[in-house]
Amino acid sequence: MVKKIFSGVQPTGNLHLGNYLGAIKNFVDLNNDSQNHCIFCVVDLHAITVSQDPKELKKNILETVATFIACGIDPKKSIIFNQSQVSAHSEAAWILSCVARMGWLNRMTQFKEKAGKDKEKASIGLYSYPILMAADILLYDTTHVPVGDDQKQHLELCRDIAQKFNNDFKVENFLVAPEPLIQREFSRIMSLKDGTKKMSKSELSDLSRINLTDEKEQIINKIKKAKTDIMPMPSSIEELSQRPEAKNLIGIYSSLCSLSVEKTISQFSGKNFSEFKNDLSQILVDKIIPISNEIKKLIKEKHYLDDILLKGSEKADKMASEKLKKIHKIMGF
Ligand code: AQP
């Protein structure tokens, strides 16, 4: 079966190891399967749900494209574009916001986490952003969405919106309810400073994450300073449930080496953390430094990156505006 894949990354700077292992690595595998039709979107409209410096935003959009390509996405095989250039996304989001229910959105945990204590001051966009995400996905008859574990709830909302639209307007299967593609293991990479918090671009401390543009010395230093507990390396998987930092670092190592957690544990059982950290740093340097160098090279090729976005948005616009036209007809516009 041909899979129609859609996924997005926000151009909010500091793309990190969590974005790579939770999402982009998966994008690359999907891009390499000739059975799939892939669309990878730089979701700049999502980025402005929190305030952005326009100059930085422009730079980050191009850096996100450079990161996609440096990680291995081929713009000849997959469509790469930025969301703001295809107006159907915003139009469909309005229509779908009249289908979605307040109660559904009120349950979204990411809004609660991102808005924090002072949710009165959060933008309305931050609250309604899962509806724009649903529009992004549904405009392309997407069948599969590769995302990190943190986006699972938003994808369930997208399915509910598709089903309600189809029921309300009696158009069976018109909007395709997509399936999430979430890796079973290592789908949520945690902060290097706190194993209970997700690794995130917006976390103030740079020591909490490995950025995809980090230099060798930065990676080594961050792993050296990464929080661990006072006990030696675990000898069983059961021990990990009480040791979030050890669990996270072992997960990162296993994911990068394509090993099971059990295998990694048996490899390092009884050894001390410093030995494990040395090996982890080495694996990270081997994986991240070629990506980091390629991003830095590509970022200077502004015309090349602009051209990828232009061509990608022309293709995406054609597909999305055809779907939107059908939506208009169904709704009586
Ligand atoms: N820590 C993570 N572990 C696994 N997957 C992750 N993703 C993000 N963080 C992790 C996945 O990366 C994709 C792109 O994410 P995004 O840029 O759209 O935004 P986000 O999820 O809000 O990422 P951040 O880092 O947490 O950004 P800020 O700090 O700006 O809010 C998604 O598929 C996501 O699941």
Radius of gyration: 21 Å
Structural category is: mainly alpha
Quote the beta fraction. Answer: 5-15%
Query: In terms of per-residue confidence, which ranges show pLDDT below 50 for 5 or more consecutive residues?
Result: none
In total, the number of strands is 5
Largest sheet composition: 3 strands, parallel
The general outline is globular
Q: Determine the fraction of residues in helical runs and give it as a percent range.
A: 40-55%
Ions and ligands: adenosine-5'-tetraphosphate
Order of strands across the main sheet:
1-2-3
Report the total helices.
13
Helix and strand run: EHEHHEHHHHEHEHHHHH
Distance between the termini: 34 Å
Please, what is the average pLDDT?
95
Give a written overview of the molecule.
Helix 3 (54-71) crosses helix 12 (273-298), helix 4 (88-97) packs across helix 7 (124-138) and helix 10 (244-257) crosses helix 11. Helix content is 54%, strand content 7%. The strands form two sheets. It has a three-stranded parallel beta sheet with strand order 1-2-3. It has helices spanning 17-32, 44-47, 54-71, 88-97, 102-106, 109-115, 124-138, 152-168, 216-225, 244-257, 261-268, 273-298, 302-331; strands spanning 3-9, 36-42, 79-82, 144-146, 179-181. It is globular, with a radius of gyration of 21 Å. The mean pLDDT is 95. It is built from 13 helices and five strands. By secondary structure, the protein is mainly α. Strand 1, helix 1 and strand 2 form a beta-alpha-beta unit. Bound molecules: adenosine-5'-tetraphosphate. Residues 9-10, 12, 18-19, 22-23, 147-148, 150-151, 187-189, 198-202 line the site of adenosine-5'-tetraphosphate. Adenosine-5'-tetraphosphate binds at residues 9-10, 12, 18-19, 22-23, 147-148, 150-151, 187-189, 198-202.
